[in-house]
Amino acid sequence: MAALAAGYAHLEGTIPPDLIQLAADAISSGKLRTTIHTLKHHEFEVPNVCYSICDYFMATFNLEPIKALLHYLPADTLPQPLRPFRIGQFQETTGPSPGEAFSERTTHVYVTIAITDLKPVNGAYIFLEGSHRLQDPKAKTRCDVAPMRLLAGRAEAWCGNLSYTYLTGGGGSFITLVFEKPI
What we know:
single chain, alpha+beta, 5 helices, 22% helix
C-alpha cells in the first residue's frame, strides 16, 4: 500500500462544512484556554463541536489507510483514537535551521483534520516521504518532500516517525487524532 511506503495517506471523506465552521469559530474566538505552547503551534481545550467532528470522522471516513500505517492491527479491528485529542493553530516562527527535521512518537499514527485550509504558508508540515523507514538521519535529508495541503474538512494520516519540516508561516487550524500501535 502506498501509505506504508510514503509514511502518510490522504483519507477519503469530508467533514460537513457547518461543523468545520463551528470549530473554526471556537478556535478564532480567543475564548478557549491554551493548554500547550510549542515553537510551531498552540493547543487549546477541546470544545464540544470537536468531539462531534471526531465522531463523524470515525463513522464516515475510510479508515483502511490508518490500519495500514498501524501495521499490526488485526483485519477485523477498527482503529480507535486516544482521547483526549488535540486541537490547535500553527504559529509564526523563525523556521527550522536548513536541513533540520522533526518527528513524533514512533508508536503513534496521527490524523490531521483541517479546520482551515492547511498548506505550508500557514504552518502545515512538509513531510519527508519514506523517512519513517530510514535509520540514518543524514539519509532523511535526501527524501522527496511532500507538503501537507488539505482543504478545510479533509484529513491526512501520518506515521509518528515520519520526519517533517515547516516554513515560517502560521494561522492554519487543525484537529489531531492520535492512534496507538498495538504492542
